[in-house]
Design goal:
D-Maltodextrin-Binding Protein, domain 2; 11 strands; 6-stranded mixed β-sheet; 11 helices
C-alpha cells in the first residue's frame, strides 16, 4: 500500500515539474513573430498606439513584433481574428472600449464574447471625452450648459460619430443622469460632426481633443468641460467636469491589449510588464499627449475590473435608451 508520505512526495514532485514547465514556457516566449491586430485603419489613434507598442516590444522581447490593420465591422473582424488565434501570446488585440465592452450590446451576432473569449493583458491609454459647443451656444461652463438645455428641452441637437459609439453613449448617459433632452444627429465620424457644429447645424458634440482642437483654435467651437479627473496637459485652461461639481460623469475612449482565452498566465504577466514600460520613454508619451491621449501603466487586475465595471454601465445606458441590437 502506498503511504501518505509517498503520495505527498509524489504530489510535490508533480507540482515542481509543472512549475518548471511553466517557467520554461515563459522563458522561451516569444518563439516567433508577434502580431498586434489593430481593428482600425492605419493612421488613427489606435494604429499610432499599436506601433509604439510594437517597437517597444520588439526591443524588449528580442523578437519581431508587427502591427496588422484589420478595419471594418466596427472592429469586430479584428477581434474575431484574435479570438480564433492560438492562445500562446503571439497574436494580440489592441482594442478600444467599443470592441471590448460596447459592441456586445449593439450587435446581435458579434462573433465572439469579449468578456469570456479574451483575457486582459494591459491597459495602455485613455482619451477623455470633452463637451464641445458651437461658439454662439449660450453657456460658458457645464452648469450653464445644463441650465440652457433644461430651459429649452429638445431644442438643441448634438452630433456623434455614429450610433453606439463612445461619444454617442457618453451624451446619452449625461442625459439620463442629468434629466436632459437633446436630439441626436449621427455622422460618419467625429470630423463630420465637428464640421457641422462649427457651422451651427448642430450645437453640441462629445469628442476627444484631437477632433475638437482644430475648431477650437479656429474659434468656431468651445470646450466647456473634460469628462475626466485631471485636466489635459495640452489644454490646461479647460476645466474638468469634476472641478465643476460633477465627479461621477467621467467618460473616455480607452485602449487595451488583450489575448485569446487560454493564453498562459505567465506569458500574460510578461507582456503586461513589458507594455507598462513602453511609456517610460518620454518621446512616446509626447506623441500621445499631443493628441489628448494619456498613457497608462496599470495592472491586469485593474484592467479586468474596468472592463467589468464599464460593461455594466454601458448595458444600463443602452437598455435605458431602448437601443436594440442590430
Amino acid at each position: 500500500m502506498v503511504s501518505r508520505k509517498m503520495l505527498l512526495i509524489a504530489g510535490l514532485l508533480c507540482t515542481s515539474l509543472l512549475t518548471g514547465l511553466a517557467q520554461a514556457q515563459t522563458a522561451a516566449f516569444p518563439t516567433q513573430r508577434i502580431t498586434i491586430i489593430v481593428p482600425a485603419v492605419a493612421g488613427g489613434a489606435t494604429d499610432i498606439i499599436g506601433r509604439i507598442l510594437s517597437q517597444h516590444l520588439s526591443r524588449t522581447l528580442g523578437q519581431n513584433v508587427i502591427v496588422e490593420n484589420r478595419g471594418g465591422a466596427s472592429g469586430n473582424a479584428g477581434a474575431q481574428a484574435v479570438v480564433r488565434a492560438a492562445p500562446d501570446g503571439h497574436t494580440l488585440l489592441l482594442a478600444n472600449n467599443s470592441q471590448v465592452v460596447i459592441n456586445q450590446y449593439i450587435f446581435k451576432n458579434l462573433g465572439y464574447d469579449p468578456l469570456t473569449d479574451l483575457v486582459p493583458v494591459a491597459y495602455v491609454a485613455e482619451a477623455p471625452e470633452l463637451m464641445a459647443v458651437n461658439k454662439d451656444f449660450p453657456a460658458q461652463n457645464f452648469k450653464e450648459f445644463i441650465a440652457a438645455v433644461k430651459a429649452k428641452p429638445g431644442a438643441y441637437n448634438y452630433g456623434s460619430p455614429g450610433a453606439g459609439t463612445p461619444p454617442h453613449l457618453a451624451v446619452e448617459r449625461f442625459m439620463q443622469v442629468l434629466d436632459l433632452k437633446l436630439v441626436h444627429v449621427p455622422f460618419r465620424g467625429s470630423a463630420a460632426a465637428m464640421t457641422d457644429l462649427a457651422a451651427n447645424n448642430i450645437q453640441i458634440s462629445m469628442a476627444t481633443l484631437a477632433s475638437i482642437e482644430p475648431f477650437r483654435q479656429a474659434g468656431t467651437a468651445r470646450i466647456i468641460g473634460i469628462a475626466a479627473k485631471n485636466r489635459l496637459p495640452v489644454a490646461p485652461d479647460v476645466p474638468t467636469l469634476a472641478e465643476q461639481g460633477f465627479p461621477d460623469l467621467e467618460m473616455a475612449v480607452w485602449w487595451g491589449v488583450l489575448a485569446p482565452k487560454g493564453t498562459p498566465s505567465d506569458v500574460v504577466k510578461l507582456l503586461n510588464m513589458r507594455m507598462r514600460e513602453a511609456f517610460n520613454d518620454k518621446s512616446n508619451t509626447e506623441v500621445l499627449e499631443k493628441l489628448g491621449i494619456a498613457p497608462y501603466s496599470e495592472s491586469i487586475e485593474m484592467f479586468q475590473n474596468l472592463v467589468d465595471r464599464e460593461a455594466k454601465m454601458y448595458a444600463t445606458v443602452i437598455k435605458n435608451m431602448g437601443l436594440e441590437p442590430q
